[in-house]
Structures are given as C-alpha cells and as structure tokens.
Amino acid sequence: MKIFTRYTISVFIIILLLISCTTVPITGRQQLNFMPDSSMLAMSFHQYDNFLKSNKLSTDKRKTEAVKRVGGRIQKAVGRYFSERRLSHKLDNYSWEFNLIENKDVNAWCMPGGKVVVYTGILPYTQDDAGLAVVMGHEIGHAVAKHGNERMSQMLALQLGGVALSTALSEKPQETRKLWMTAFGLGAQFGFTLPYSRIQENEADHLGLIFMAMAGYNPQRAVFFWEKMSQKKGGKAPPEFMSTHPSDKRRIANIKALTPTAMRYYKKYKNMRSTASQ
Q1: Which of 30, 39, 83, 108 has CA atoms 20 to 30 A from the CA of 4?
Q2: pLDDT the model gives residue 275
Q3: What is the pTM of this model?
Q4: Residue 184 backbone dihedrals phi, psi, to 5 degrees
C-alpha cells in the first residue's frame, strides 16, 4: 500500500511538472509552480503589512536611506533585465518596498512582489552599499526566481492534493495559510527560518550577482561578504541569516565560479552608464 501511495504521488508530481512548469530567469531551470501571482502577492502584501505594524522601523536616516538606495538600484536592474528580454509582464503587480528594521538579528529577507526587509544587525557585516547589494540581491533573487511559490506548489501537491490555491483557501483556509507561512519560512517573528534547497540557494546567488552587477555594484564583493559571514559562524550557532543560507567552502567556490560572468555584466553596464553620462 505504501509503495502504491508513493508511486501515485510520484506520478502525480510528474504530471504537475509537465503541465505547471515555469522557467527560472537567468538559470533557465524548470520548476513546479502553479501558484497564481495574484493570490500569492495578496497574501504577501498582507503579511508584510502585519510585520511592519509589529516591528520598529529604524530611525537612523543614513542607514535607512542606504537600504532604500541599494534596493532601488537593484529593482531597476531587475526591471531592465526583464525588459530587455520582453518579459516585463512577469513583474506585473510587483510593489517594491525596502525597509530597515531595528533588530539585532543578523538577517534579511524578501517576500513575493518585492517586499524587502533588512535588519540593523546585519549592517556591521555588509559595511557599505556594495555589501548591502550582496545581501539584498541574493534575497531579491529568491523572490524573482519564485522559490517560495515553488515550495508552496510542492506542499499543496503533497498535502492538499494539488488543488488550486483559491480552492484551498476557501475550503481549508487554516491549513493553506499554515502552508504559506511554512513555504516562506514565516515564524512568530516573521523571520525566514525554512532552509532553501542547495539548488535554490545557488540560483539566488547567481541571480543576486547578476542583478547587483547590473545595478553598478562590483560582484567580487560577494566573496568577501560570505567569507566574513563564514568567519562569524565559526564553531558557534550560525546567525539567523546563515541558518537558512549556509555559507561554506562549496558555496564560496560556486560564487567564485559565477563571478566572471557577473563581471561581464558589471563592465557592460558600467560602460553604458559612462556613455550615457557623456
């Protein structure tokens, strides 16, 4: 019976993959995603508003402006990447927002639709705009690649039989909202705590490097940041940001391998900005 059940589930997932595949930008990976953006974004915006109501925004004007400045440049880079490939419609209904929260945790995250939060506790490690671009680019990469949507699709398929999100919300609202909170790692403090897969982490690194490079930040800074985070981890419990973002030799090696490609974007768009300013 167990074998039959596993076989049935496997066949069901394969069928879903065939009819519900989307393509991750830049990497081209096929992913299971049958979540309607309208529903996902509505839930995201609601949860983000709740988070802001229960957490203190930083009153440090300089640091807050840095987060908004870096976020705005990466937002434009994402828009440009999609526009150049005639894919701007994929960003429809995004409502970008960048906030700095007064919190000592070393953490940052991005919800679907471009809702970004950076905690003040991570700023000593980012140090400047380029360091912030590493963190924000990575988190925006997760959102643009729709990794949370992918996880939500997988959980709906396995736990609720693959029903449509709207149906699940109307028939099993509590279970569905719980799945959504789990898919995006939202706990009591709304911090992301559910680890992404290694494939998703590599994709977020990849997308983040390209977006920060297009935004005018040197992607070589990413290696320095992750090495610094790795040193902080040491033999102790990792900070919140690293509990869901493993930093190790393999990750740093992967980023080093991706950097030459990102540098081509950096130099290309740097030249374009220089030409435009003349």
Answers
A1: 30
A2: 64
A3: 0.81
A4: -100, 10
